[in-house]
Design goal:
With 265 residues, the protein is α/β, with parallel strands linked by helices. It has helices at residues 10-21, 34-43, 71-75, 132-145, 154-184, 193-202, 215-218, 221-230, 235-251, and strands at residues 2-6, 25-30, 47-49, 61-64, 84-87, 103-109, 125-129, 149-151. It has two domains: 2-152, NAD(P)-binding Rossmann-like Domain (Rossmann fold, 3-Layer(aba) Sandwich), CATH 3.40.50; 158-259, Orthogonal Bundle (N-(1-d-carboxylethyl)-l-norvaline Dehydrogenase, domain 2), CATH 1.10.1040.20.
């Protein structure tokens, strides 16, 4: 199966590596940035193309791997008859592709992908298709590189995308704020890494609400006030601390101290 990638960023790079590893032929890498196209094409043993109008019609699948807000404009330039065209976005509708081909669909990686990371991550995929032929082709691609595949229509995919933003982008922003706080106060952020890993590991066993700890769940107003005092010079983090504490207080049932054993309570 021959594949053309439209895009040369993080998603195109990681998916390209995964598919090449499974012996798919990467036919082309298409990108307005000729340098990026050339670099990725060389890695994937493909041909670089810097004009989408010059794209080959010899591929079996065309993967549009560009930013969500660019997929419609890019796809509008792609006409490949009956070949399968997919995009990789969480928030863009499948119907954006309806004028590119009779066969189109979605291959959305529910994962944060970074091309500079040396290892290949585990990637769940959400898929959708315009017809059974397209679905079978997309499943063939997805099953070759993932053990976790789920069909999801536009609304469901958007819901997954929103949840992914919360658990990935928002939590990483909290890590960034905590990292800055540690630097300013000359304490070691690295000492928090085992804690971060442990909290994530618990998600494989428990519902997150079942393992909530901290002063907000206990209604420990004194500790919260001490923390807020420490954050007087960090207004952004202070505001988030207040909002998160209020959310925990109002949405989770409080438990007695005996039910909480973490030293971080």
């Amino acid at each position: 199966m021959k594949i053309s990638f439209v895009g040369s960023g993080n998603v195109a790079t990681v998916l390209g590596r995964l598919l090449k590893q499974k012996h798919f032929t990467i036919n082309e890498v298409v990108s307005r940035d000729k340098t990026h196209a050339l670099h990725l094409a060389k890695e994937l043993d493909a041909i670089e193309v810097d004009n989408i109008k010059a794209i080959s019609k010899n591929s079996d699948v065309y993967i549009v791997a560009v930013n969500d807000d660019a997929v419609e404009a890019v796809s509008s330039q792609l006409k490949v008859d009956d070949k399968v065209v997919v995009h990789t976005c969480g928030s863009a509708s499948i119907n954006i592709l309806k004028n590119t081909s009779r066969n189109f669909g979605i291959l959305y990686p529910l994962q944060s992908l970074r091309k500079e990371i040396s290892y290949l991550p585990v990637v769940p995929f959400l898929i959708d298709a315009s017809n059974n032929y397209s679905k079978n082709v997309i499943i063939t691609l997805a099953e070759a590189i993932s053990d976790n595949i789920k069909e999801a229509h536009d609304e469901q995919r958007m819901q997954y995308h929103l949840a992914a933003i919360v658990v990935s982008n928002f939590t990483n922003h909290l890590f960034a704020l905590a990292h800055e706080y540690c630097i300013v106060n000359k304490i070691e952020f690295s000492l928090l890494l085992p804690l971060i890993k442990e909290i994530v590991n618990r998600l494989q066993v428990f519902n997150p609400a079942e393992t909530q700890t901290g002063p907000a769940i206990r209604g420990d107003v004194l500790t919260i006030q001490k923390h807020l005092s420490l954050l007087k010079d960090f207004p952004q983090l202070k505001n988030i601390y207040e909002i998160m504490s209020e959310s925990i207080e109002t949405t989770l049932p409080k438990s007695s101290p005996k039910e909480r054993t973490s030293s971080l309570d």
